Amino acid sequence: MKIIDKIIKSQEEGHPFFSFEYFSPKTAQGMVNLHDRIERMCYLGPEFIDITWGAGGSRPAATLEVVSNAQKVYGVETCMHLICTNNPTEKIDKALS
Hints:
The chain is α/β, with parallel strands linked by helices. Helices cover 49% and strands 16% of the residues. It has helices at residues 3-13, 28-42, 60-73, 89-96, and strands spanning 19-23, 48-53, 78-82. Strands 1-2-3 form a three-stranded parallel sheet, with helices on one face. Helix 2 (28-42) links the parallel strand 1 (19-23) and strand 2. Helix 2 runs parallel beside helix 3. The two termini are 23 Å apart. GO terms for molecular function: FAD binding; methylenetetrahydrofolate reductase [NAD(P)H] activity. Keywords: FAD, Flavoprotein, Oxidoreductase. One of its GO terms (cellular component) is cytosol. Pathway: One-carbon metabolism; tetrahydrofolate interconversion.
């Protein structure tokens, strides 16, 4: 289900919704910690989670790994959040393509 559809459904049902935002880790241990945290926080029932792409110099491949695992392993809808601030147009264009 699309995220917007989840939001609309929550509004129509009259209950609040929330999401969590995470940053992709830069280290292997950070990746382990993040997956543990996502697993624990998914029990709280967010409508979706947001993974920031390229925050603080994180690798795009790490973002893709987090998104893939969150959807496949934890069954949570996931959105990638692209940081455009201080990024050259070429880098943004490449990420979008």
